[in-house]
Amino acid sequence: MKSMSILMMSTGLAVTSVAAVAGNGAVGSKEVQRPVAAAAVVLTPVFTLPGTTHVAAGAALRNRPSAVINLSGVPSGYTLSAAYLYWAYASISGETADGVHNKMLFKGLAPTSSQVTLKGTTVGNGADPCWSGGSVFVYRADATKAIQSFIDAVGSLPLSYQVTLPAGAAGDVSGASPWSSAVPPLAEGASLVVILASASETGTTLVYDKKLAGRTIPGGSLAYSMSLVPAGFSTLMTTIGADGQVGGGYNDSATGETTTVNGTLIAGPGSTRSDGHWNGADGHAMPQLWDTATQDVSSLNDGSGTMSVLENSPGDCLVPVADVLSVK
């Protein structure tokens, strides 16, 4: 498992397997790994949408059967251009095209719509983030038609969405604490990225996930660059990731988890942001383990066409899922 209790979090640092005893009882063992510094990875956008901006939000799904994603910051007078739902599972051995993990039940709330099943594409997989072994798999589904049907039915964009795991997809949906129950497969969370257009919008939205999603940071750092970034005076960046957590001194300040963009520290200790990108904030206070962080990085877009990112996590295992930029 990743941590031994809510007050004794994982260090993500050794190669041997050690017994992990949670505050509520023993739940197994975890793989602890030495810090590894990865070479820089160059990302190209999987989607580029001119005349748009974006909003994004997420919800944690560990040991839960469902969760609600609440959007905020939706501008008035905009129409739907595209929407993508991301989710992930840890501690699974693999996935087939007709499996259960690459599907998510999805419906709009406030107002309520009918439920649909979204089928995702595997956009990345990698090492299990220090739980029960196996792998982590990240999925992306195109939710555009589903949300447009919700809009057509109710006359407006729903601001809340329910995501529900298919039957049998997760090992535990009892609501138990992640620190006392880690029964694989382990659902991580889900994030919705909604891309909006208007006749007066001059910005461009770029979505990056290939070669990033599932590239587990096993107690070390990950350097990558987003290419083909337009020059602009305004740049909004959303970072989606799995397995972030706090507790027992294992927060950004204690573990040194930081995010740097084009050489400037934007999150974590020493930054002007009050916290980091990897605190499990989409599931506070429980179950944590999922983050969707949006931040203004306008001053860091230097017009070079590249946004270079360094994610540093010397004390925990983290899983990048996707980055989204809106530039104008």
Task: Give an overview in words.
- This protein has one domain (17-327).
- A hairpin with a 2-residue loop joins strand 17 (258-261) and strand 18.
- The protein is globular and about 50 Å long.
- It is built from two helices and 20 strands.
- The strands form four sheets. Strands 3, 4, 14, 15, 16, 17, 18, 19 and 20 form a nine-stranded mixed sheet that branches.
- It has helices at residues 144-154, 252-255; strands at 17-22, 25-31, 41-43, 47-50, 52-60, 66-70, 79-92, 103-109, 116-119, 121-127, 135-142, 160-164, 186-197, 204-208, 217-226, 235-242, 258-261, 264-267, 290-296, 307-327.
- By secondary structure, it is mainly β.
Brief description of this entry?
The protein is built from 2 helices and 20 strands. With 328 residues, it is mainly beta. Strands 3, 4, 14, 15, 16, 17, 18, 19 and 20 form a 9-stranded mixed sheet that branches.
Give the tags.
single chain, 328 residues, mainly beta, 9-stranded mixed beta sheet, 5-stranded antiparallel beta sheet, disordered N terminus
